Amino acid sequence: MISVVRRSVIGGCLTFLVATSCAQEKTQSTGQPNPAVNTQLPVNWLYGAYIPKGAPLVALTGRERFKLYLRQTYTTPGIYIKTGFFAMHDQVKNSPPAWGDDFSGFAKRVGSNQATNIIQNSFTSLGQGMVGWEPRYDRCRCAGGWARLRHAFIRNFITYDRSERSIRPNIMPFAAAFGAGVIGATWNPDNPTITVKGYQSVITQAWVGVLINDIGEFAPDIKKKLSRHKGGPERLADEGH
């Protein structure tokens, strides 16, 4: 019964997150933001920074990278909502048990998740900035569901160098996840070793990264279906469909 409730809670939260992320894209598309920001620095609160399908692949400057880091780590509401989501997940699992399942335990889980998110984002941005690698997800410039799924999957494990043409192994998010997990384990009770938490964070980064890329890839299509379901006008965000 507990596992069923847990899956229901997580599934409901994910559905809500996808729907509201699509709503954000609709809001962004109906406004009139700075064109440079609209094509090179859009940040969706759920799946982060992305490059619209019709926008050119242009390497970010150091200033743009710093601005992107601030948006993804501090000023975009999504990081706090995602922190709350994972804190609720841990609360339902009562993980770690030493923190208890009361409000005090939930507060500790919120603080722990938020600190870990900030550390991971900081390590990722610093590493990518030092080598000049692409930190954003580029939507597939292809057609067909399978081709787009393949692109979303592969892009979690590869990225582009500063030329925006040559590919590189996307090691920075995984190294950052390991580092953040190890650091988080120092204040997280009941972990047998700090490296265990680091490996768990890497595994989480693998499947969460693919899931987020999939959502980012198909968000315009999801929004289109939602618009049809509501009977309202279809307004696609940035894909020019």
Write a structural description.
With 241 residues, the chain is mainly alpha-helical. The protein has one domain (2-30, 44-230). Helix content is 65%, strand content 6%. It has helices at 2-30, 35-40, 62-75, 77-93, 103-131, 145-154, 171-185, 194-230, and strands at 43-44, 48-51, 137-138, 158-160, 167-169. It has a three-stranded mixed β-sheet, sandwiched between helices. The protein has a two-stranded antiparallel ribbon with strand order 4-5. A hairpin with a 6-residue loop joins strand 4 (158-160) and strand 5. Helix 5 runs antiparallel to helix 7. The longest helix has 37 residues, at 194-230. It is globular and about 50 Å long. Residues 1-38 and 233-241 have low confidence and may be disordered.
Briefly summarize what is shown.
It is built from eight helices and five strands; from the N terminus they run ααββαααβαββαα. The chain has 241 residues and is mainly alpha-helical.
Per-chain topology:
Blueprint (H helix, E strand, L loop, with lengths): L1 H29 L4 H6 L2 E2 L3 E4 L10 H14 L1 H17 L9 H29 L5 E2 L6 H10 L3 E3 L6 E3 L1 H15 L8 H37 L11
Parallel strand pairs: 2-3
Antiparallel strand pairs: 1-2, 4-5
Helix pairs in contact: 1-4, 1-8, 3-4, 3-5, 4-5, 5-7, 6-8, 7-8
Biggest beta sheet attributes: 3 strands, mixed
The number of domains: 1
Percent of residues in helices: 55-70%
Please tell me the overall pLDDT: 81
The proportion of residues in beta strands is: 5-15%
Total helix count?
Answer: 8
So what's the overall shape?
Answer: globular
Strands of the largest sheet, in order across it?
1-2-3
Distance between the termini: 44 Å
Low-confidence stretches: 1-38, 233-241
Number of strands: 5
Radius of gyration: 18 Å
Helix-strand sequence? HHEEHHHEHEEHH
Helix/strand/pairing category: mainly alpha
